[in-house]
Amino acid sequence: MRRILVLNAGSGSQKCSLFELPDAGLPVEPLEPIWESSFDSTAPGQPEGKIVLRVRRGDEEIEAGSVAKESSIEERDERLLELLWDFRTKTVTGPSEIDFVGHRVVHGGAEFGAAVRVTDDVEATIDRCSAFAPLHNPENLTGIRVARKVFGKKTPQAAVFDTAFHRTLSEAAATYAGPYDWLEQGIRRYGFHGTNFRWAAERAAHLLNWKQDDELRLILCHLGGGCSLCATRDGRSIDTTMGFTPLDGLAMCTRSGSVDPGILFYLARQGATIDELDRVLNKESGLKGLSGFPGDTRIIIPAANNGNPRAGLAMNVFIHRLRAGIGEMLAALGQPPHAIVFTDVIGESEPGIRAAACEAFSFLGLQLDQSRNAASPRDTDIAAPESAVRV
Questions:
Q1: What is the pTM of this model?
Q2: Mean predicted confidence (pLDDT) in 303-312
């Protein structure tokens, strides 16, 4: 067996998963990790000034201490990895038992159209692409550097890029209607969440037992801390809602999504600096900015249901923008999708959001099975038997 460690060092959470793969061949069904450790700085109910570290080992859930909220990403990543051989949570005896390490990286720019082996030159390029994804690439790069320090450069490591999946966008879909020299500077729509979109498209085809001759059309809804949509035809990305940076597109938990650029000119003339605008759009907008609560649907949806007007407005805006984005992906496909797919933590766990999104597309013959939707079953078709579109 080969032990493959996957590190996802994100902007709000860090997660480490260990998988055991057979020496030959790949399994058809997704593998469950044999061990996981994670921090989630956005999760509610944590001790004041602390972020709780959790470990899952098989069916066993372990609360493995905490770190200070002001701790660095490097400190958190090192702690996650050390728990692999910590006496309370260990699953291996030391770093030498890990055969390969994989990293999720948000932005690969124009340089990376596929996964690559991590080298010093690859690290440098990921660093340069931090200008395009300042909330994510620095954290992703920190995870790579921590892992190379812990496991040594002899342990092979690979970077998998969220932008790579969208390299199949047409020139028209990828180009902004600005000056042509923007393209020559690399200013174009890259798209994000591609690592998950690739997996979700393949998984949906498998669940649908797709063997038809025509191309499978999907609208993929990645709804988490960051939110984006992707239209795929036969597993290839043809359009997506995020663009040059992960700030574009849908309203998100703390990010604004698309706004009229004129708003920024207006605020700048009122005295707002570039750094202030960056902070507001990335960290103080979206569900958080509108509701006044932390940008977490587990908090905002109950508040909205209890009549809080700002929470209600935040959810209404979120759903309005989600429906509009699905309509945009529908137009890109030019035909009804065979399925709409919901993924990531909000997409997987919030039946009310799925129902509200699907309700607007009943004219396509889309109909949910309400009891299945309410149960949020994993990797399951929740459309009614008579629905013309699967969900």
A1: 0.90
A2: 98
